[in-house]
Specification:
Layout lengths: L1 H15 L6 E10 L20 E6 L2 E7 L6 E5 L1 E9 L5 E2 L5 E9 L7 E9 L1 E8 L3 H4 E9 L8 E4 L6 E4 L4 E11 L5 E10 L4 E10 L7 E8 L7 E4 L6
Parallel strand pairs: 1-8, 9-15
Antiparallel strand pairs: 1-4, 2-3, 2-5, 5-7, 6-12, 7-8, 9-12, 10-11, 10-13, 13-14, 15-16, 16-17
């Protein structure tokens, strides 16, 4: 009787306990879309998939990681829900040396499927590309000038584009994020500093060039102003947005 009860107990445990979920197979399709709307520097290195890292995550746990050049054609993995992530670069709120490119895709792996499930990941920049073009005439009227950028990713910090800077700035932004831009200049004539604060809408993979030049008021008082042109086109065509009267 005792042996029979033991057998029954083992039978119940086998039927009611956790069952093996089984495994499935996934294959990877990683692509890049790293171009910007404006032309300033060559971002061709971001099209080179051999530079990318590909990872499999389950929740907060990293399951696997490969360099793309060593990525297997397919991977057998326990059935369940996963996220596949591919990335390249340094994830910084602001950088003049490069940008961060990332792609993510969710997949549910089914057990014993007929063939591999393909997960497609498209990697795109998480940043906007910004440039400031100061006219050479700025030095005629101003002893110093700069542009300060503030974004959500920068938090309490900011990035200052100083006169003489030339490298494009990559700013980490959200979709249609309102970016604060403050233009500062110190006049040679009286040493007075004036600030103008503007807001521009930016999204990842977009570009913005701010052209800044002095404007002398043709009236008798000869007061000094600044013109601001914004360029967001693919052909580097200047689009005159406004001439702020605050500087007149």
């Amino acid at each position: 009787m005792g042996c029979l009860l033991g057998v029954l107990a083992m039978s119940c445990t086998s039927e009611d306990g956790p069952q093996q979920a089984g495994t499935g197979t996934i294959s990877f399709n990683v692509a890049t879309e790293a171009s910007f709307s404006t032309k300033a520097v060559n971002e061709s290195e971001y099209a080179d998939l051999s530079r990318y890292t590909v990872e499999i995550w389950q929740g907060t746990d990293q399951i696997s990681s490969w360099n793309h050049a060593e990525l297997p054609e397919s991977v057998e993995i326990a059935a369940g829900s996963y996220q596949v992530k591919a990335w390249y670069g340094e994830d910084k709120p602001a950088s003049t040396t490069g940008m961060y490119v990332e792609g993510k895709a969710d997949i549910t792996v089914e057990a014993e499927q007929a063939g591999p499930q393909t997960v497609t990941v498209t990697c795109k920049p998480v940043c906007a590309k910004v440039a400031v073009d100061f006219s050479e005439e700025m030095d005629t009227y101003f002893s110093d000038y700069s542009v300060t950028f503030k974004t959500k990713a920068l938090g309490a910090a900011s990035y200052v584009w100083k006169k003489g800077d030339a490298d494009p700035l990559y700013l980490k932004v959200g979709s249609n994020e309102e970016v604060s831009v403050t233009i500062t200049a110190v006049r040679k004539s009286d040493g007075k500093q004036t600030d103008i604060s503007k807001t521009y809408t930016m999204s990842p993979q977009t570009g913005l060039t701010i052209h800044i030049a002095p404007v002398v008021n043709p009236s008798d008082d000869g007061s000094l102003g600044i013109s601001i042109d914004i360029d967001t086109t693919t052909n580097d065509h200047e689009e005159d947005i406004e001439v702020p009267t605050e500087w007149i």
